[in-house]
Amino acid sequence: MVTWTHSTTYIDYPSAIAQMEDHVDQMIKGERTEQIWLLEHPPLYTAGTSANVTDLVDPNRFPVYDTKRGGQYTYHGPGQRIAYAMLDLNHRGKDVRKFVSMLENWVIQTLAEFGVQGERREGRVGVWVVRKDKPLTALGAHPEDKIAAIGVRLRKWVSFHGISINVEPELDHYSGIIPCGIAEHGVTSLVDLGLPVTMDDVDIVLKRKFTEVFGSS
Which of 11, 19, 94, 153: CA 20 to 30 A from 194? Predict the structure, then answer.
């Protein structure tokens, strides 16, 4: 059984990590069920296990936290839906690549409900949107912006961390880092794409699409 928790106040990053760690440890002991935790963070940067310090352009802008999730630097802040997924892959198939693909599919299907075509890109983690409304690049291609990030960690095949979808964050806050080490592409959000979408709208679709992608248990 998957339980859903929704925090309505901003959760600081160290507290979120501590709560996830505790929940995962209890899941491993068989004392807690799987959980999806919906929340927002105050403005901050996190560094994944592949982070390059040169990608931290403005280290004094927001707090910076090292984390043991996969990936590089990313931004979290108000207007961004975080969904931390504490799921037991012992019962869902011990396949990390498949799990990450399912997380991506969860995001892509959620975006599709709002008329946004989210896409995967080889060598680039996360979900991307082709910006046909912007001028062509120097190579004559449509620019691509990142709309969602994915970073996971496993402990005894129990997952934590998860996904983040840009609903209406302050996009300028990304300028303190090179997001995911990719300088040639930008970032966007649902509202930046011209969609009057609220966090509640996204939450409703996330819950429905989770069941379609992962099943109810």
Answer: 11
Q: Residue 178: pLDDT band by 50, 70, 90 thresholds?
A: confident
Cβ-contact 73, 178 below 8 angstroms: yes
Catalytic residue flag (residue 185) = no
Q: How many CB atoms lie within 10 A of CB 143?
A: 17
Kindly report the backbone phi and psi dihedral angles of residue 36, in degrees, each rounded to the nearest multiple of 5, phi listed first: -110, 125
First vs last C-alpha separation in the chain: 5
Sign of CA dihedral 100, 17, 11, 169: negative
pTM over 0.90: yes
Of 184 and 133, the one with more pLDDT = 133
Task: Reply yes or no on whether the pLDDT at 106 is more than 90.
Answer: yes
From 102, 150, 177, 180, the catalytic residue: 180
